[in-house]
């Protein structure tokens, strides 16, 4: 799809204007910051070596990792090589960084912080016999780990290749300037390509033309169910198919999983049928426009029947766009996910049915844009309520009251991250709530704890 710059700019301007209409009034008065690119002065420093990274996982796991690795390169005074993306995992997407992100903007917008190059100098090429150190940083590491254990290695090896990058930087305890750099990379430097942006804005425009809409991240794809072991609502044949898929991937650790136990603990995504029930109880009605921001739903239209019956205006991207529009993106799951990311960020309400990487990054992005409404479903509570209602113990009216009471403070309002120092995997994720990046001054804890949106802004000096 050919993209004219004037047409893209018009779409972007129209989208940004529409987006402002849904932000709090005081939010529109906040100063714009980080107008990056032309005019940004190159930071001058002596590089301690070259950091090369291969990101693993889906689009949003890789996105967070890129933010982390740029930050690591910055505080170790390294030269950062444009990241390589995962091509070997379940998704088998062959996209390179420049197929998804605007690489020139990425390099230029960060040049006042870190030197970024497209590829290593030839003298460090394997063809010339050079062998870099290949390693996996320890998960959830502090800045001290990188300073004390990683930085000294560059003196010997000059080039280090991190071949795993997921969750390799701590959520908490980092200096404020590094936390804010993570946000700058995420919100400003990682801009999608003009082709992705143009189609994303077109999707948003088509949806907004019909009125407000909900972006539903219905995490009910085959891989999600197989690897989580969640099969509630599936037939026996489907449950067996999911189990066989799990066993077919030797790198997946857990093989025997009790689906009902996981569901009771709130560790399974809601089914499409459960999701329809919950959306109805939260006050959404048949006129609600719902955009499904997901891949192929397991069970296809059969499993979407209840959702479509409750919400006839349920839409997928393929229903809005011509086949020609999507042709270049098909078989590229990360590029398709980028479109869903854009629509989810722009939606009036975002509802994820599971707290995976996309859900958490969209949540954080919406906080940054003015705490736009994001309904964070309390799955552990909900599955119990659903079962009580469906077995006749709980009336519909009582069910509605209980569901709404459970979500009073789960709409993406300002809140402090929950910190668990010895269990970082269980604490709140930095990118879901980058609280350090939402305040005008250094007193973020006081501002956010008081739920004071007038003292918040979408950027920082």
Structure description:
With 461 residues, the chain is of the alpha/beta class. The protein folds into two domains: 37-191, no CATH class; 196-455, no CATH class. It has helices at 5-20, 59-75, 97-100, 103-109, 143-157, 176-189, 194-208, 222-228, 236-248, 259-264, 272-281, 300-310, 317-320, 323-327, 333-346, 357-368, 379-390, 396-406, 444-449; strands at 50-53, 79-81, 115-117, 133-135, 159-162, 213-217, 289-292, 314-315, 349-352. It has a five-stranded parallel beta sheet with strand order 3-2-1-5-4, covered by helices on one side. It has a four-stranded parallel beta sheet with strand order 8-7-6-9. β1 (50-53), α2 (59-75) and β2 (79-81) form a beta-alpha-beta unit. It is globular and about 70 Å long. 38% of the residues are buried.
Key structural traits:
globular, 19 helices, carbohydrate metabolism, transmembrane helix, disordered C terminus, five-stranded parallel β-sheet, O-fucosyltransferase family protein, 9 strands, four-stranded parallel β-sheet, glycosyltransferase, alpha/beta
User: In what range is the share of β-strand residues?
Assistant: 5-15%
Distance between the termini: 38 Å
Radius of gyration from CA coordinates: 23 Å
Counting copies of identical and different chains, the oligomeric state is single chain
Q: Percentage of helical residues?
A: 40-55%
Note the overall shape: globular
User: SS-based structural class?
Assistant: alpha/beta
Low-pLDDT runs: 17-37, 453-461
Looking across the biggest beta sheet, what order are the strands in?
3-2-1-5-4
Question: How many DSSP-defined strands?
Answer: 9
Task: Please indicate the count of domains.
Answer: 2
* Main sheet makeup: 5 strands, parallel
Mean residue pLDDT = 89
């Amino acid at each position: 799809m050919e993209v004219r710059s004037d047409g893209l700019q018009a779409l972007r301007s129209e989208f940004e204007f529409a987006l402002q209409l849904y932000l709090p009034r005081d939010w529109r008065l906040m100063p714009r910051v980080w107008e990056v690119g032309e005019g940004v002065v190159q930071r001058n420093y002596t590089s301690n070596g070259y950091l090369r990274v291969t990101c693993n996982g889906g689009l949003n796991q890789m996105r967070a990792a890129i933010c982390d690795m740029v930050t690591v390169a910055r505080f170790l005074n390294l030269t950062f090589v444009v990241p390589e993306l995962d091509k070997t995992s379940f998704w088998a997407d062959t996209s390179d960084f420049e197929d998804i992100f605007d690489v020139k903007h990425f390099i230029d917008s960060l040049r006042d912080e870190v030197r970024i190059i497209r590829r290593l100098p030839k003298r460090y090429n394997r063809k010339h016999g050079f062998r870099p150190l290949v390693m996996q940083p320890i998960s959830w590491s502090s800045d001290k780990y990188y300073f004390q254990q990683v930085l000294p290695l560059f003196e010997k090896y000059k080039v280090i290749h991190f071949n795993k990058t997921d969750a390799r930087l701590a959520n908490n305890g980092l200096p404020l300037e590094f936390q804010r750099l993570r946000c700058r990379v995420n919100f400003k430097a990682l801009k999608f390509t003009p082709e992705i942006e143009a189609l994303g804005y077109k999707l948003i425009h088509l949806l907004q033309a019909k009125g407000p809409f909900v972006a539903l991240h219905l995490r009910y794809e085959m891989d999600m169910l197989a690897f989580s072991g969640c099969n509630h609502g599936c037939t026996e044949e489907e449950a067996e198919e999911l189990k066989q898929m799990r066993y077919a991937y030797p790198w997946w650790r857990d093989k025997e999983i009790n689906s009902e136990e996981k569901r009771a603990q709130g560790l399974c995504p809601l089914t499409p049928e459960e999701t329809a029930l919950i959306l109805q109880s939260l006050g959404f009605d048949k006129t609600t426009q719902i955009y499904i921001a997901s891949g192929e739903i397991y069970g296809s239209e059969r499993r979407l029947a209840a959702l479509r019956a409750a919400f006839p205006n349920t839409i997928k991207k393929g229903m809005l766009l011509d086949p020609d529009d999507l042709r270049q993106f098909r078989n590229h799951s990360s590029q398709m996910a980028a479109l869903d990311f854009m629509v989810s960020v722009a939606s009036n309400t975002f509802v994820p049915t599971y707290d995976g990487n996309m859900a958490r990054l969209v949540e954080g992005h919406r906080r940054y844009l003015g705490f736009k409404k994001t309904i964070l479903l309390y799955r552990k509570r909900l599955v119990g309520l659903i079962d009580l209602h469906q077995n006749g113990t709980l009336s519909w009216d009582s069910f509605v009251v209980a569901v709404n009471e459970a979500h009073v403070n789960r709409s993406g309002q300002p809140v402090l991250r929950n910190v668990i120092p010895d269990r970082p995997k269980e604490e709140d994720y930095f990118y879901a709530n980058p609280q350090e990046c939402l305040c005008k001054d250094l007193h973020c804890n006081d501002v956010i704890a008081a739920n004071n949106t007038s003292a918040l802004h979408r950027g920082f000096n």
